[in-house]
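Sequence and fold
=================
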Amino acid sequence: MERGSYIQIADGNIFDPLNPDPDLLTIEVIARALSNQCRFTGHVSEFYSVAEHSVHVSRIVPARLAKRAILHDGSEFAISDLSSPLKNETEMGTLYREVEKPLQELIERKFGVYDGPIPDEIKRADEAMREIERLTLLPRTPEGDELWAEWPADTTLVPASCTPGCWAPDWAYAKFLERWEEVK
């Protein structure tokens, strides 16, 4: 097999993020990868997974959007993530989004939740959760507060039950799948 852009995924299959096969997409593979990936590129006081973040976002949105919300970072199962400044402000981010967007759309179509661009309710819930996570898990410094002031978010959207718990990867995996069963 030519090396190309293939990766081995959690179930042992070989997956090409640039030419993805939807038949290889399972919720278990996505959950496993997201449960092992840390938010904020790992610069947190305690491990906090993308899977836990996704579960919380799915609890913030209206019930009709919960299934799509739990998958809102689904493409990260295969391509990880870039920090927001790199993703939003650089040529690298532009290239990343050229891979991320079709892969995310494919995932959403595979699981029956694609309905055009991500709804504003999910965007707002994602931003609100990000702010709660930042305040809970990142060091508080004047420089950091100044930097983050550029990305305001309405934290009143986040119920107390969505406080970051810093779940261990196996627990995050189980909770992601449990939430998936609730919303599917």
Remarks:
- Residues 7-183 form a domain with the Hypothetical protein af1432 fold (CATH 1.10.3210.10).
- The chain has one domain: 7-183.
- Residues 26 and 111 are 9 Å apart (CA to CA).
